[in-house]
Amino acid sequence: MDLSKVLLVLLSVVVSELSEVQAKPLDFVCDSEARRVMNKVKELEEDMVDCGAAASLPAPIRLPCIRVHKATWAKKPVRQRQAEVLLSLGSLVQDVRRAQAQSQPSCGLNLLERLERSISNYQHVLTQLHSEQRESESAQDPVCLGQNSQDFGVILRHLDRLISGKLELLVTDMAQAC
């Protein structure tokens, strides 16, 4: 069988599996266990210890703003909060990709690839939820960005706080639809 035909069949199988994932984005909102399993930060932190060279990245990554003023956050429409988290994730994943491009093949590059996939998964779920909602509001405030860091551990801690902070607050409000 021709290699292109094999790849086409394989791609078709992968796409069919992905469409099932996209069919139920509210599972992420309604199932706290699904969210816990999706958070790969602890696994990445453990693997970073085994990969000492990965502690310092070849390019700086701008850290997302992780502080939440609960009163101000609660006043924003859900759609605006969702857009704010998406912008933070988008900025983070762009910088991770830039660091990947400057990395040599190593366990550090593998960690960056896994981090990029993890962030992209969150983006995908929120984008699917974003497109399902009927509201037409978007993020009015520019994305809040923190300092630059080349420390992989600091980046993981900021991602974890973004997930357990803003994202979890957002999901808590969205869970009323469950």
UniProtKB/TrEMBL annotation:
Gene3D superfamilies documented for this protein: 1.20.1250.10
Key words of the record: Disulfide bond, Hormone, Secreted, Signal
Keyword Magnesium: no
Top-level lineage group: Eukaryota
Cellular compartment(s): Secreted
Gene Ontology BP terms: cell population proliferation
Listed GO CC annotations: extracellular region
Stored SUPFAM superfamilies: 4-helical cytokines (SSF47266)
UniProt GO MF annotations: cytokine activity; hormone activity
This protein's record includes keyword Signal: yes
Entries under InterPro entries matching the protein: 4_helix_cytokine-like_core, EPO_TPO, Thrombopoietin
Signal sequence extent: 1-23
Family affiliation: Belongs to the EPO/TPO family.
Protein name per the record: Thrombopoietin
Source species of the chain: Pygocentrus nattereri (Red-bellied piranha)
Gene label: THPO
